[in-house]
Fold this sequence. Notes:
This protein is of the alpha/beta class. The protein contains six helices and nine strands, in the order αββααβαββββαβαβ.
Amino acid sequence: xxxxxxxxxxxxxxxxxxxxxxxxxxxxxxxxxxxxxxxxxxxxxxxxxxxxxxxxxxxxxxxxxxxxxxxxxxxxxxxxxxxxxxxxxxxxxxxxxxxxxxxxxxxxxxxxxxxxxxxxxxxxxxxxxxxxxxxxxxxxxxxxxxxxxxxxxxxxxxxxxxxxxxxxxxxxxxxxxx
Length: 178
């Protein structure tokens, strides 16, 4: 399957979560066994080429792709969680959203000192969550310089924001004008 074949598996939902937004829904992609397998294989090839020693994924859809990539490569996975989800003391970071703020947390022992961690998520839009995850992983001692996504929405500028933060960014597909 080509990236265009995979792109055809993405459902577009108009006016969700608000009027004028075209939501790119990966549910239809992950429901297609061949499409999911090919997406994971493509991300895994890119993570391996980047020298990944661990994969990190942001809750929740980053868990789907990130954990599968880690399994494909035979390396560990770091779940980057929403607040209050881990049963231990965590380290965290607060970050700004368009309207308000949010927080990400990880187990402080999840990343052995200096490991090269590649982040994987389903979609890059504005880049706020990905930038916060990178900062948090670096705070924990990881070396993070690559971010991989299934979908890029380039008109929202997230990939460019990551590149400005010295991250290599790669996506399987992009939807322009979104």
